UniProtKB/TrEMBL annotation:
Designated name of the protein: Cytochrome P450
Annotated membrane topology: Single-pass membrane protein
GO molecular function per UniProt: heme binding; iron ion binding; monooxygenase activity; oxidoreductase activity, acting on paired donors, with incorporation or reduction of molecular oxygen
Keyword set includes Transmembrane helix: yes
Keyword annotations from UniProtKB, A to Z: Heme, Iron, Membrane, Metal-binding, Monooxygenase, Oxidoreductase, Transmembrane, Transmembrane helix
Chain residues that bind heme: C190
Subcellular location: Membrane
Organism: Solanum pinnatisectum (tansyleaf nightshade)
Keyword Cytoplasm belongs to the record: no
Major subcellular site: membrane
Amino acid sequence: MLKRMLEERKSQPRKEQSDFFDYVLEELQSKDTILTEGIALDLMFVLLFVSFETTSWAITLAIKFLHEHPQALKELKEEHEAIIRRRENASYGLTWQEYKSMKFTFQFINETVRLANIAPALFRKTLKEINFKGYTIPAGWAIMVYSQAVHLNPAKYEDPLQFNPWRWEGIELNGATRNFMAFGGGIRYCIGADFAKVQMAVFLHCFVTKYK
Ligand code: HEM
């Protein structure tokens, strides 16, 4: 389907660029590009999946956790109602400052994505031979980092199957750690992580303040 769309767009170029397809086409037609049509189509397909399914899945689980944990719902409601009370005009929309002040919301989001394990594993390739606990992994081998096993490891997270947003109290996460890889890590760290968190926070804000 994407291939057909690309062909159509190529045969009838639009006067003004308005979507991602137009930018991909422009790049494809530029002289020094490293992009091929195959890569471009893969990119479009992957982006459709990683930018949509991930966040909607996390939000779906967030609703489930809210339903099952009334104390978390109460605390979340309090945080968001306080944000609205502090506003000069209650009808104004959310501001970036308000978003950054959502302490419990971030704990709630971290815990949701820890348990969601939307990408349960990460893939890497060894650049050099690695010796680990008596095992040798030759250079050039594919490795699967099973992040889900870290997120559900009782040695790392007390009572790991329990939804407990309070476990994140006082912990500021700005990227991946050895124990938290819900958005991957290193050079391939999810480029949409901050965007996904904003989307989730805005959704939660509307949900707990408007839904009756
Ligand atoms: C709750 C939502 C999301 C989760 C849990 C998530 C998780 C991940 C994970 C685990 C990776 C693999 C990173 C690695 O291999 O180290 C990844 C990569 C990626 N994510 Fe996300 N993601 C989310 C939302 C998004 C959104 C909204 C976008 C785009 C708008 C996005 C775009 C990408 C892209 C393009 C990559 C590939 C990065 C690369 O290979 O350099 N993700 N994501």
